[in-house]
């Protein structure tokens, strides 16, 4: 599991990322937002960013787009 800090003008948040290589999935959680998502390797790309933005829209508000791009970048590096 990797823990990243997302620092924006809105807040500082810890982002927990767990990669399950056997099942080819990634679990991302942000406890301060009570938010998590599980996605497969096949979902990387524009479709993933759109799904992250939609999922984060309610708990993160204005921060959702920035968080979505950071999460996509971090998980793409794994």
TrEMBL record:
InterPro entries cross-referenced by the UniProt entry: Uncharacterised_YueH
Source taxon at top rank: Bacteria
Protein name in the entry: YueH-like protein
Organism phylogeny: Bacteria, Bacillati, Bacillota, Bacilli, Bacillales
């Amino acid at each position: 599991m990797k823990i990243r800090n997302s620092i924006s003008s809105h807040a500082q948040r810890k982002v927990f990322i767990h990669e399950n290589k056997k099942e080819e999935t990634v679990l991302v959680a942000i406890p301060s937002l009570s938010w998590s998502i599980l996605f497969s390797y096949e979902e990387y790309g524009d479709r993933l960013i759109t799904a992250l933005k939609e999922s984060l829209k309610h708990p993160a508000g204005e921060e959702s787009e920035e968080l979505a791009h950071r999460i996509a970048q971090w998980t793409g590096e794994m």
